Amino acid sequence: MDFASIAFPLRLSLQVAGISTVLVALLGVPLAYVLATRDFRGKAAAGVAVMLPMVLPPIVTGYYLLLLVGRNGLLGRASRALTGTAVGLTFTWQAAVIASFVIALPLGVTTARSAIAAVDPAHADASRTLGRGELETAIYVVLPLAARGIVAGLALAFARALGEFGATIMVAGNIPGQTNTMALEVYNAVIYGDWKTATLLVVVFTAVSAAVLLGAGRLSAEAVR
């Protein structure tokens, strides 16, 4: 066992979790804003669709994703057409990003939605009275007031993406040096009886996750003051 043997899984996990969290911020926060501030037909169904990956077994979510990014899936065909590769998105680290993003999205959206809903509507009303449009009110008033809760949600999404396993192995496989994230490497180490490496990976996992949860907890506590 040496650090070099876990360096790639550690770097890949941080890379996948980081990009997934950016995607949650870009797509999940606007979605959370709409769900928190708007009433529209199908809102309940949209909320359920966002939350499903949180309650479904990750393997089931991975199966759905495989239908989307596989050779004959919508994204799979588009990827093969663009890159000219035979497998498209499947069995790549980008597929791991997609899996981690989908699994982490519910945590980010739920936390951000609660933080945005907790903002006093009087602030948004005052902004509109001063002539600001909906987009300006969201960017300059509501989102800054909900920022700590939103950041806490993104921290939770990062932690969830960091430990993603089931959906990842379905769409990205478990290829050493290509798609073996830390969670997959723990599985590999246990399967091959390398308990020292498994223990080291688990300790690193636990320390990083605990630090992220501690930071998210502090942000959440400050957000409700």
Number of strands: 0
Kindly state the mean pLDDT as a whole number? Answer: 87
Indicate the proportion of strand residues: under 5%
SSE string = HHHHHHHHHHH
Fraction of residues in helices? over 70%
Q: Major sheet, described briefly? A: none
Computed over alpha carbons, the radius of gyration is 20 Å
Distance between the termini: 47 Å
Spans with pLDDT under 50 lasting ≥5 residues? none
Instruction: Give the overall silhouette.
Output: globular
Query: Structural class given helices, strands, pairing?
Result: mainly alpha
Number of helices: 11
Q: What oligomeric arrangement do these chains adopt?
A: single chain
Tell me about this structure.
The protein has helices at residues 3-37, 43-55, 58-69, 74-83, 93-117, 121-129, 134-145, 147-162, 166-171, 182-191, 195-223. The chain is an all-alpha fold and 225 residues long.
